[in-house]
């Protein structure tokens, strides 16, 4: 009996010795501005859509959120935020690129980037990612909340167009989050859409004792909805990443109405 046990133990050890190494995980790098970025507790419930984004994937996908508040393509490069990503990129990784909010801010010269330079910077991201055998994905800037006469307005005309031009010229996958988010807000309606943004009455949250009327940055609900739009487009485009979703996407639900009309805010 002990002989049989010994043989069985040796067989088990042999199997363990020849186990295949675990498959390498694929990393999705997110680069962009405050609409994607990780937030600190002091700004909660403000939430970037990059925060819930990892929850849509299984354990084979790692999401590295390098987006940063207030950054344009120009300042992201000037602050050397791109180089560490390039150095870390492995073949088969992804780089999701969404800028525009701060590039277009002419009244903020520390971040403003003319459209022509914006295109060049996007091209740099795409070219250098491909050089590392990674897969760039261009994303148009997510909309701001701005209803006029019951219709959600297009708030990033020139920079969304430039993003689409680079995607077409370079044959890069494009997620038109600008249009998708506008359509979502139109579906929710003017009042309900405010629940997707950082719209708080005075005293509603201790981080904002005087309230907040922010039509650019998202609530937890809004960030999750925007991440859901990105994931839904990966499925629609039959991206290989869609094979690594952790669970089916939930159906959209329109929440109840809230509060008076809000005024537009700066980025």
From TrEMBL:
Residues 243-267 are annotated as: Disordered. Keywords: Hydrolase. Residues 31-224 form the SGNH hydrolase-type esterase domain. The keyword Iron does not apply. GO terms for molecular function: hydrolase activity, acting on ester bonds. It comes from the Bacteria. InterPro entries: RhgT-like, SGNH_hydro, SGNH_hydro_sf. The keyword Hydrolase applies. Belongs to the 'GDSL' lipolytic enzyme family. This is Rhamnogalacturonan acetylesterase.
């Amino acid at each position: 009996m002990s002989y049989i046990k010994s043989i069985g133990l040796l067989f088990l050890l042999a199997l363990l010795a020849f186990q295949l190494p675990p498959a390498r995980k694929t990393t999705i790098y997110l680069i962009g501005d405050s609409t994607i970025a990780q937030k600190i507790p002091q700004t909660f419930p403000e939430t970037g859509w990059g925060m819930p984004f990892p929850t849509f994937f299984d354990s084979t996908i790692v999401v590295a959120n390098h987006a940063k508040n207030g950054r344009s393509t120009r300042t992201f490069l000037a602050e050397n935020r791109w180089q560490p990503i390039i150095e870390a990129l492995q073949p088969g990784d992804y780089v999701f690129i969404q800028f525009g909010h701060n590039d277009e801010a002419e009244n903020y010269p520390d971040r403003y980037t003319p459209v022509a330079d914006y295109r060049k910077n996007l091209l740099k991201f795409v070219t250098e990612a491909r050089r590392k055998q990674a897969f760039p994905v261009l994303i148009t800037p997510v909309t701001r909340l701005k209803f006029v006469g019951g219709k959600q307005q297009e708030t990033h005309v020139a920079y969304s167009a430039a993003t689409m031009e680079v995607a077409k010229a370079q044959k890069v996958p494009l997620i038109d989050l600008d249009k998708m988010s506008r359509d979502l807000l139109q579906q929710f309606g003017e009042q309900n859409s405010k629940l997707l943004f950082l719209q708080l009455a005075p005293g509603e949250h201790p981080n904002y004792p005087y309230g907040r009327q922010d039509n650019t940055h998202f609530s937890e609900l809004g960030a999750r909805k925007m991440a859901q739009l990105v994931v839904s487009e990966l499925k629609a485009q039959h991206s290989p990443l869609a094979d690594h979703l952790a669970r089916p996407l939930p159906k959209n639900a329109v929440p109840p109405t809230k509060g008076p009309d809000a005024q537009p805010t700066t980025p």
